[in-house]
């Protein structure tokens, strides 16, 4: 990797007790330590950074207890490999709030901010290089929106997906696809799309995309990042507050101009879904494939060129379609990513697969007539009884699984016990769970230490012990 990347400081926003991951996240297992193919999800980001020679990291974790657990794990695994400072940040302050609480400890000119739940193979160095090349205030990594995989049985939370429509991101790019001109996230898209006329006048053409996902990997100019976070104390989310603000203020001379908000109101044009297509496609007769900032520098519509100081650049780096990119930010995503990392994205797992295209630890024991199919993983010290069948599933360490047990499209974490004659499909079984004999689970989430009594048949439920307060 080229050396300029080295002087980026890296902040990993690793989260903590994420509410939308209950019951698989708990006090014992904070989000960064959730297992993906039997290793903490945070390890995927750390190793991606390490392979790009980005080794000076601050890892921000919500809550002191979670920060201690994550810090302990990092120092045991990465002791001679990375220089990591773990910072406990307040809970429920959002990504921008977490960044705000550490931004004054940062010293480098450019900062790379990456979500700790990102599992991807796009080199962060490429994003950093694009950022430097354009002298941008922010450069955002965009990837193809992952198609949420429904398993062959149609399970893995199928009924949830029918209920809620996919949240959509609308992204506006200049004709050269280097600059980010417009951004709106799911909740706003359902209302109206608003675009500044000034930007449309400037670009002449804007490409509107709804098929790209914000991967939550950003390069920022530190001075601007600090200034905005200090001024805008109400900003909670990088994606919903900070990024749209920087994108909107691209045409203004300074971020802190007092008339800023007023100017913006008058530029907004309300667009309903019927007339937006025609509005976006209005373009200057001579619109060439010039970039937005070239057009702006040469003067809009023949007007005098704008002084260079009047613009700051918001850029994008768009990953190739062949790249894998997903975020573990929902229960569905937890299942999907676990399946992908031992399946189509197995190069990310860090393991070598057997000739049967699976990973069975040499210390695991399999009973007679027990089959472990391709795209499966079986952790160290786990035992399966006779006549078991495991398909497209990850089984953790030191699990005790009886005879005649079927496990399909599921994740079973460490030290779980599954009794004879049980069937587990499209489910997540957390650590130390006990399923007694003949339990049938379909599309369930079972929190750590829970006991399901013999003969129970449960579908589509989330089961967890009451947390002791």
UniProtKB/TrEMBL annotation:
Q: What CDD domains does the record point to?
A: eIF-2B_gamma_N, LbH_eIF2B_gamma_C
Q: What is its main location?
A: cytoplasm
**Residues annotated as domain Nucleotidyl transferase:** 10-152
Q: Which UniProt keywords apply?
A: Cytoplasm, Initiation factor, Protein biosynthesis
Kindly give the PANTHER family that the UniProt entry links to this protein.
TRANSLATION INITIATION FACTOR EIF-2B SUBUNIT GAMMA (PTHR45989)
Pfam families named among the record's database cross-references: LbH_EIF2B, NTP_transferase
What is this protein's function per UniProt? Acts as a component of the translation initiation factor 2B (eIF2B) complex, which catalyzes the exchange of GDP for GTP on the eukaryotic initiation factor 2 (eIF2) complex gamma subunit. Its guanine nucleotide exchange factor activity is repressed when bound to eIF2 complex phosphorylated on the alpha subunit, thereby limiting the amount of methionyl-initiator methionine tRNA available to the ribosome and consequently global translation is repressed.
Composition bias (Low complexity) maps to 145-154
Instruction: From the Swiss-Prot or TrEMBL record, give the protein name.
Output: Translation initiation factor eIF2B subunit gamma
UniProt record similarity statement: Belongs to the eIF-2B gamma/epsilon subunits family.
The terms under GO molecular function for this entry are: guanyl-nucleotide exchange factor activity; translation initiation factor activity
Q: How is this protein organized at the quaternary level? A: Component of the translation initiation factor 2B (eIF2B) complex which is a heterodecamer of two sets of five different subunits: alpha, beta, gamma, delta and epsilon. Subunits alpha, beta and delta comprise a regulatory subcomplex and subunits epsilon and gamma comprise a catalytic subcomplex. Within the complex, the hexameric regulatory complex resides at the center, with the two heterodimeric catalytic subcomplexes bound on opposite sides.
Q: Cellular location of this protein?
A: Cytoplasm, Cytosol
Q: Which residues form the EIF2B subunit epsilon/gamma LbH domain?
A: 363-455
Q: Which InterPro entries match?
A: eIF2B_gamma, LbH_EIF2B3/5, NTP_transferase_dom, Nucleotide-diphossugar_trans
List, alphabetically, the GO terms of the cellular component aspect.
cytosol; eukaryotic translation initiation factor 2B complex
One GO biological-process annotation of the entry reads: cytoplasmic translational initiation
Which residues does the annotated region (Disordered) include? 145-165
């Amino acid at each position: 990797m080229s050396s300029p990347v080295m002087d980026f400081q890296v902040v990993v926003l690793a989260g903590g007790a994420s509410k939308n991951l209950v019951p698989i996240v708990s006090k014992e297992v904070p989000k960064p330590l959730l297992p993906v193919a039997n290793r903490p999800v945070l390890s995927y980001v750390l190793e991606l950074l390490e392979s790009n020679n980005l080794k000076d990291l601050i890892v921000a974790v919500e809550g002191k207890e979670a920060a201690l657990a994550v810090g302990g794990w990092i120092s045991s695994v990465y002791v001679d490999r990375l220089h990591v400072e773990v910072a406990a940040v307040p809970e429920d302050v959002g990504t921008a709030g977490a960044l705000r609480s550490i931004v004054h400890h940062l010293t480098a000119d450019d900062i790379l901010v990456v979500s700790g739940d990102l599992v991807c193979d796009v080199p962060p160095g490429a994003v950093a290089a694009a950022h430097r090349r354009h002298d941008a205030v922010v450069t955002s990594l965009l990837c193809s929106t992952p198609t949420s995989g429904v398993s062959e049985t149609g399970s893995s939370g199928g009924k949830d997906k029918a209920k809620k429509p996919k949240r959509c991101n609308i992204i506006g790019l200049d004709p050269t696809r280097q600059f980010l001109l417009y951004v709106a996230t799911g909740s706003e898209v359902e209302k109206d799309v608003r675009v500044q006329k000034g930007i449309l006048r400037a670009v002449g053409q804007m490409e509107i995309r709804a098929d790209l996902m914000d991967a939550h990997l950003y390069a920022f100019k530190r001075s601007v990042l600090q200034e905005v976070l200090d001024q805008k104390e109400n900003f909670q989310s990088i994606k919903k507050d900070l990024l749209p603000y920087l994108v909107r203020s691209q045409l203004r001379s300074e971020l802190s101009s007092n008339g800023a908000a007023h100017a913006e109101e008058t530029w907004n044009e309300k667009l309903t879904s019927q007339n937006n297509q025609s509005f976006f496609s209005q373009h200057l007769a001579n619109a060439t494939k010039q970039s937005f900032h070239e057009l702006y520098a040469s003067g809009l519509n023949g007007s005098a060129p704008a002084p260079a100081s009047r613009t700051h650049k918001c850029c994008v780096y768009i990953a190739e379609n062949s790249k894998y990119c997903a975020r573990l930010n929902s229960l569905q995503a937890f299942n999907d990513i676990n399946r992908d990392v031992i399946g189509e994205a197995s190069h990310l797992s860090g393991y070598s697969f057997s000739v049967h295209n699976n990973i069975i630890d040499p210390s695991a024991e399999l009973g007679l007539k027990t089959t472990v199919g391709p795209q499966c993983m079986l952790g160290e010290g786990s035992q399966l009884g006779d006549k078991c069948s495991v398909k497209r599933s990850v089984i953790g360490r030191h699990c005790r699984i009886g005879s005649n047990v079927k496990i399909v499209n599921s994740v079973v974490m460490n030290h779980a016990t599954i009794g004879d004659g049980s069937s587990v499909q499209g489910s997540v079984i957390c650590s130390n769970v006990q399923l007694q004999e003949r339990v049938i689970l379909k599309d369930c989430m079972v929190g750590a230490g829970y006991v399901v009594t013999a003969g129970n048949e449960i579908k589509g439920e989330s089961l967890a012990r009451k947390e002791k307060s």
